[in-house]
Design a protein that fits this description.
20 helices, 73% helix, transmembrane (chains A, B), globular, disordered C terminus, transmembrane helix (chains A, B), homodimer, mainly alpha
């Protein structure tokens, strides 16, 4: 980017072309339509098969994503993985059927990837908004202390065990060991909450503790990542940045709750005033997107803002109406996220023919062991909840998902990680992500309502919305 | 673009950066979230006020778009208008609140514009899919001949009168006069169908004739545009291209109807088989997006494919269920389209302080007169329908909307149009677009159900969906 900017100065015409040259928009729309067809096909095929064998549909969506993505079919690929447009089968298909020229292909590919990535991001934002709408702030607060303890144990134990183990057993130096340890701390709210929702356990006590702990873990993870990244860059911790993150995260969460109590009534009053279409869902999205924006710009994650917005609106009389309307929107956008996560997963790291993978394999086995045990024991830290399913809580914290991939990505970019260790971390992320949904399904013995968002559907609507 | 490609060859590193350098994705997401907040705010403010004074909400959404767009507030601007990122208030806001660097701004601006443009395009695709779901193929076929006559009259009369008038009265040479005449032939399906839906007249006989004629007009317009563009480029008509367009358009429409009869049953069987969430809406979108893709790549418009898909699925038992689920999705995406159309409208052409505008003004008055009269008289061409509201049909064909803007854009790019004539065409497009919704509202005297899509809402859902 820096390089590009220097050039911009000396070649203004090119600079203009780079930044604002409009790509053939009809071709970009065609590429996005094709991508969505591929995504929906993969999500339905995977989701239905997964459901059929009694596993959460989201596992199938992830696997469907792997199938169409960079590991297998190369239909849906993204430039982040270093793939260029010539590896995208969708681009090849457009060249054959729509007369896309090879010269225009890189730009159309870049635009399509950008659009699909943002749609995926909107998908997980809407998912967390929906999860917030289905959760209850009071219930969450009631288990708040337990959730906090679970989150802290789930950060400290895997981090300490992972870092120490890598240094002592494998003789790895401090900075890369700390990075790998940090990657072990993540928990994917998206995958965990989606599975809980699919097996009808989101509103169980265990579900609320997992959800609360995953949210707190996400905040802790952002702080850990900031610490580790500054350590890898300067060899020292940027204390002011860490304090800023802690203060802003706390202020945001407390602010959301206080603001929520005020905004509650305003929202209902506004929604009652509006007479045209979208009079409930549009004000709700304005609120959710503003909260997501704020969370994003104070270096938290956008999904935390959307979750807080959902929690606030759950308190209002409009909850049921809003849930019914968000449901199909989530059905449309959420699969884009899970399929994209799968599509970006490069199973190449599991290929034993590649030397760095073989070297990484034994480290991967160690990391995976720590990753699973380090989270499962968090259930033991829950106190004052007799008869609670401690194993389920621990298992719920296992999936690293997209959060783990962020850690791996930052680590690889910083140059702190050796290739084998980088491969080992990605193996750990893949395995914990894909193992967690079936494990969660089995530690919660009797599913209540599979494949339906618990509490989201009005009884009169089950026929139309639950499928 | 051509220039860019030459450079790519000699500076491979830069070429790579241009095509695949990943932009700061968290910043792009923040920019898109802000844009959506602005869009939703503009659409609700405009739509509600418009509704309050008894006009179709979509007029308010367009005006709201103008307010936040390139003409007034510069919140939502697009590179197409030659605007660069320094004119985007959203970018300025991101620089202040989110620490967006000036160097990264052009790329984030380009990505944000690309994403919002595609969301707008998805919005109008979903709108036409929804309109198709609410229309009945048999009803449309019944008035097919009348719709065809209305479309042909509405193309021939404005084209002939406009071209001849400009040549005879204003002494303009043939090619620019033909271009201006061609711009007069357009009809915006999006605006017309949305207004009809909002005033509850989509399924009236008049509504069906207007809708059918607007669809046929769209196909005719694409052919006219191809003829005129090749005329402006080479001075000769590319006959083979015109034949290709006519054959492919006809084949597509007939194919859609035949295929529809077969796919009908397959769709219901598939939807019944699916047990996970989105089991109706996702297969429907797969079908709609494939149809839109096909229409797009055979040089028709994507919206025609989506409309055909909606018409096909309207025939199935799943219609009601599908309509209920598409409704909130449309509520989320359709406003992006109308606000974007408004935001891209540059009211600068109406400014009399600019000399070319003054010169264009008298031509604009002529063009607007031809534009309105040339479409209003199409109602007279309707035969065999005693007691039909001929005025309403003619008025329904008036709005040029986004289709007119495409003509103006191609004309300006070809260099065939003088500045005053270009300004005059844009004035004509703006006035017909913004006049049509109130006019349509008044020529249909008693509104049945304002602000509700006719027939789309299950009675049990009116409370939740109609607002």
């Amino acid at each position: 980017m820096q390089f590009l900017n220097t050039i911009n100065f000396t070649v203004p015409l090119l600079a203009n072309a780079t930044a604002t040259e409009p790509v053939d928009s009809s071709m970009v729309v065609a590429a996005v339509l094709l991508s969505l067809v591929v995504i929906y096909f993969a999500s339905k095929l995977g989701g239905e098969l997964s459901n059929k064998i009694g596993l959460p549909p989201v596992l199938g969506e992830l696997v469907g994503g792997v199938l169409v993505g960079t590991s297998v079919l190369h239909l849906l690929v993204f430039p982040e993985g270093g793939t260029d447009s010539s590896n995208s089968l969708i681009m090849t298909f457009l060249q054959i059927t729509a007369g896309l020229t090879p010269e225009a292909t890189p730009q159309v590919f870049a635009a399509q990837s950008e659009v699909i990535s943002v749609l995926a991001e909107l998908g997980v934002i809407i998912l967390l908004f929906e999860i917030g709408l289905e959760s209850n702030l009071k219930d969450l607060m009631e288990v708040g202390i337990q959730a906090f303890v679970v989150a802290v144990v789930g950060v400290v134990v895997p981090f300490a065990a992972g870092t120490a183990g890598l240094m002592i057993i494998f003789g790895i130096s401090a900075v890369p060991a700390i990075f790998a340890g940090a990657a072990l701390t993540a928990t994917s709210i998206g995958i965990t909450s989606k599975v809980l929702s699919e097996i009808g356990r989101l509103n169980s006590k265990e579900g609320q503790i997992i959800l609360g702990a995953a949210v707190i873990d996400d905040v802790l993870g952002i702080i850990v990542l900031a610490v580790v990244a500054s350590l890898a860059k300067d060899g020292a911790v940027d204390v002011s940045n860490v304090i800023y993150l802690i203060v802003s995260a706390t202020a945001f969460l407390i602010g959301a709750v206080i603001l929520g109590n005020i905004f509650n009534k305003t929202f209902v009053a506004i929604a009652d005033l509006l007479k045209t279409r979208g009079g409930v869902v549009i004000p709700a999205f304005i609120f959710a997107f503003i909260m997501a924006y704020i969370a994003d710009v104070i270096n938290l994650e956008a999904i935390l803002g959307a979750f807080a917005a959902g929690l606030v609106l759950e308190e209002t009389d409009k909850r049921k109406e809003l849930q019914n309307q968000v449901l199909p929107i989530a059905d449309m956008l959420v699969p884009v996220f899970f399929v994209a996560v799968g599509a970006k997963t490069d199973l190449g790291v599991l290929n034993p023919a590649i030397p760095t993978n073989r070297e990484g394999l034994i480290m991967a086995i160690f990391l995976i062991t720590v990753a699973i045990i380090g989270k499962v024991i968090t259930g033991l830290a829950v106190f004052g909840q007799p008869g609670i399913n401690r194993l389920a809580i621990g298992v719920g914290m296992i999936p690293r998902g997209e959060v783990g991939l962020v850690f791996a990505g930052v680590g690889a970019a910083s140059g702190a990680l050796s290739k084998p260790l980088g491969a080992a971390i990605i193996m750990m992320v893949i395995l914990t992500t894909f193992l967690a949904p079936p494990l969660l399904r089995f530690v919660f013995p009797e599913p209540k309502t599979a494949a339906t968002v618990d509490g989201a559907t009005d009884p009169s609507l089950i026929g139309s919305n639950s499928k």
